[in-house]
Every structure is written in C-alpha cells, then in structure tokens.
Amino acid sequence: MNGLAERLQSLSDEALAKIGAATGASELEEIEKTILGRKGELALLMRGIGGLEPSERGPFGKAVNEAKGAIAAALGERKDSFEAARMSSELDDPHFDPTEPTPEHAVGHLHPITKVRREVEEIFLRMGFDVTDGPEVETEEFNFDLLNIPSHHPARDLQDTFWLDSGHVLRTHTSCVQLRAMIARGGKPPIRVIAPGRVFRNEQPDATHEHTFHQVEGLMLDEGVSVADLKGVLTTFLSRLFGQACEVRLRPHYFPFVEPGFELDVRRAGSKGEWLELMGCGMVHPNVLRAGGVDADRISGFAFGIGLDRVAMMRYGIDDIRWMMSGDPRFLSQF
Ligand code: YSA
Question: Is 76 a member of any domain?
Fold first, then answer.
C-alpha cells in the first residue's frame, strides 16, 4: 500500500498516546484540530489514496475511517473525564453553595415607540389601509421637488436637512412615501396606505425635538374623497388610539404638498380641556397627485403625518423626547 497503511498506523498510535498524556481540555482541542481537522493529518493522508491500486483504495479508506472513529472516541472519553474532574473539584470547594440562587435573567421587551407604532398599524389595517415603507436615504426629488416644495423653501436649508455628499438627503419626513406608494400602484385608486418610519432633521435636540424621530404618514385617494373623510378617519383613529372618544379640530396651515392644509389638534370629546397639537394634514395638492401618476381631475384625497415620538410621550407620560433614543435601561425598563 505504498507505505500509507504504516503511516496511518503510526499516526493513530501517536494520536492515542497524546490523548492519553493530555493534561487539559485545551490540549485535546489542539489534538483534535491537528489530527481530525479539515486540514489535519488524517485528511492529508487521505489525499494519498489516489496513488493506490484501485483494489487497495476501499480497504485503505475503511482503515482511515476506523482510525478516525477510534481517535474521536478516545477524545470524547478524555474530555468527559476532564469535565467530571472539574465538576468534582468545584463541588469539593468549601465555598461552593449549591443553594445560592442563579443570577436573574433580564427579560427584554418592546420599545415604547415600537408598541405605539404597532397599535397605529393595527388600527389602520382594520380600516382597510396597507402598511408600506420607503428609504431613509432619499433623493432630493422625492423629499422635496415632487412634493411641490420649492427650491427657496427653508426645509432645503443646510440648517434643517442632513445632506449627503452624493446629493441625497436623510429624509426629513415620511411624506416622500406618499409618492412612492402612488407610483408603486400605477396611480390607480383606491389607495389607502400608512408608512411609519424614521426621519432626520438637523436640529439641536431639546425636550420636544430630536434630530432622529419617527413619523407615520397616511394617504387615502379615491374619487370624491373630501375634508370630511379626513376628519372622520382621523377622529376614529385617535379615539381608538387613546381608548376614548376624541374631538378633532383643524387649523389652517401651510404645507406645500397639500391644499388646503391643516394642523390637527385633539382633545377628549365633551371636555373643556386643552387642545393638543398632533399632526399635519390636508388634501393632497394636484401637483403631487400628478407627480405620482394620479389623474388629478378625477381623483382627490387626503394625507397626514403624525409625530410618533410625541404620541408615545403622551401615551406613557414621558417628559423628554431625548430618552427615546438614549438606549438607557433606567428609562427602557419602565415600559
Ligand atoms: C403634513 C401634511 C400632509 O398632507 C402629510 C404630512 C404632513 C406632515 C409633514 N410632512 C411634516 O413633517 N410636518 S411637521 O414638520 O410639522 O412634522 C410632523 C410632526 O412630526 C409634528 O407634528 C411633530 O409631532 C413631529 N416632529 C416634527 N419635528 C420633530 C418632531 N418630533 C420630534 N422631533 C422633532 N424635531
């Protein structure tokens, strides 16, 4: 057999002797790697099989497998005996206390923003909306131009927007997903989508402002959709979200991508309490509809953008938005 059988025998004898003489688990791991490993000595020996007579190959392969089995079994036995020795020395240690409780495992849970986002999604799904998303790194076109935001608008200023060297922006709002949703649906109504996601603004954080926060965009387009539908859908949504009947008030506001545009305030129905400003909304501007491939003469609809962090703050009584992205367990463990 070309000397291969003798080499196999001596390799196997040597390996078994080394295993017997090993003084610890790490030595065994080293032996395992050098003998049985993918590039180990047995694998090298197997490569010589091609030089054998065809009639010798079968018996040689079998002998290699047997040697491998014997070495692996010896390794296993020796590992077990090291482990047993380690355990018994630990048990013999006079300081070992088997009654000591195991350390507590911290169990994780969802972030308050994730919880609120899921609730918002659930409510809109039940009202027949789809949930969609879009890229956080956007083109100037989708973030501004197609949304009817003119080049002199302050949002385009370096002060307010993170511009990338490539000319892209970190999206400043989720409104760009309105266009992506219209285009993805070939401009064909009915279109009912919400798009939750992260947005970014080059702002100095304070208790109510972050540079990275979350919005949920909403869009509903069809024939004959009016401000009454906007008010109805959003009143239903907010009443479900806050678990009590809500009253909604629209105040005229300018957003370039809607006409008319509003800011929406909410309060508990029948209460004389304070109105809380919650989101921007309005009837989608015909220029935006056209940019999304929608027939603006026949189709109308509304859109809205909610600040999700602010909703979560109200929901859980959080007094400073900067906790949200802090990753601080003292904050997170309260939810
Ligand atoms: C308006 C009309 C539409 O048809 C559709 C969407 C919109 C919303 C618009 N795209 C927008 O971003 N308006 S906004 O600048 O007023 O932001 C919307 C909400 O995001 C705010 O009401 C607020 O809740 C939240 N927000 C804004 N800046 C923030 C912030 N939350 C935390 N940190 C900031 N820096």
Answer: yes
Asked whether residue 100 is domain-assigned, the answer is no
pLDDT tens, N- to C-terminus, the chain (335 residues): 568 888 999 999 999 999 999 999 999 999 999 999 989 999 998 888 888 888 988 899 899 999 999 999 999 999 999 999 999 998 899 888 888 888 888 888 999 999 999 999 999 999 999 999 999 999 999 999 999 998 887 767 756 899 999 999 999 999 999 999 999 999 999 999 999 999 999 999 999 999 999 999 999 999 999 999 999 999 999 999 999 999 999 999 999 999 999 999 988 888 888 888 889 999 999 999 999 999 999 999 999 999 999 999 988 989 999 999 999 999 999 98
Span from the CA of 173 to the centroid of ligand 1 (angstroms): 7
Pocket test residue of 310, 313, 322, 323 for ligand 1, highest count of atoms within 8 A of CB: 310
203 lies in some domain: yes
88 and 125 part of one domain: no
Q: Examine residue 39 and state whether it is found in any structural domain, yes or no.
A: yes
Which protein residue has the closest C-alpha to ligand 1 atom 32?
209
CA 271 – ligand 1 centroid, Å = 26
Instruction: Round to whole Å and give the CA distance between 128 and 140.
Output: 31
Cα–ligand 1 centroid distance for 305 (angstroms): 6
For 265, the token pair is: 């305030």
Q: And the tokens for 196?
A: 């939750």
Instruction: Please give the Cα distance from 322 to 221 (Å, whole number).
Output: 35
> Structure pTM?
0.72
Find the domain containing 85 and state its range: 2-92
Cα-atom radius of gyration of the chain, to the nearest Å?
A: 34
Number of structural domains in the chain: 2
Task: Give the Cα separation of 260 and 255 in Å (integer).
Answer: 9
Regarding the beta carbon of 67 and ligand 1, being less than 6 Å apart is answered no
Structure tokens at 216: 């949920």
Q: Give the closest residue to 18 by CA, choosing from 97, 74, 56, 60.
A: 74
Q: Which of 57, 92, 127 is the last residue of a domain?
A: 92
Query: What separation in Å is there between the alpha carbon of 323 and the centre of ligand 1?
Result: 19
